[in-house]
Design a protein that fits this description.
The chain is mainly β and 139 residues long. 10% of the residues lie in helices and 35% in strands. The chain has helices at residues 51-57, 119-125; strands at 3-9, 21-25, 37-39, 63-70, 73-80, 92-96, 105-107, 130-138. The strands form 2 sheets. It has a 4-stranded antiparallel beta sheet with strand order 1-8-4-5. Strands 3-2-6-7 form a 4-stranded mixed beta sheet, with no helix packed on it. The termini are close together.
Length: 139
């Protein structure tokens, strides 16, 4: 089972109100307009993910389990890979409910977007707490 772990931070402007995506970014700032962004200052984006992980994620049958943990709370999201994934953006990882793919897309056909996250978790994310994101490819 291939796993990648990302460490990041919450931010006071995390609102997690986006209805179709959520995003993790290496950027350090977040404006209130970034309603899909759930964490900033990530220590990894596509360039830091292993080639084996990215190659496996580019399978049309690949299932990705994403676990977001913060302040003792966590959220699991199931999403899917695709042979069309570019996995090339230097700072942003976006998970989408839709099948839309661009350089920022990590996974598609997710079962949750930012709006679906537990509101207690979102509150913790908005309090600048450390965030751990686990990306696990399921067999």
């Amino acid at each position: 089972m291939l796993t990648e772990r990302i460490s990041a931070l919450g931010h006071r402007n995390v609102s997690a109100r986006h209805e179709t995506t959520f995003e993790v970014t290496k950027e350090k700032h977040l404006t209130p307009r970034g309603d899909c962004i759930i964490s900033v200052s990530a220590d990894k984006a596509f360039p830091e993910l292993s080639e084996e992980f990215k190659k496996t994620l580019r399978g049309d049958d690949t299932v990705l389990e994403i676990t977001i943990s913060c302040a003792g709370l966590s959220e699991k999201v199931i999403a899917h890979g695709s042979c069309d994934l570019q996995l090339s953006h230097p700072t942003d990882l976006v998970v989408r409910r839709s099948s839309f793919i661009c350089e920022r897309t990590l996974a598609i056909r997710a079962d949750k977007a930012a709006i679906d996250f537990n509101r207690e978790l979102v509150k913790s994310l908005s309090e600048n707490n450390p965030v751990e994101i686990e990306l696990r490819i399921l067999d």
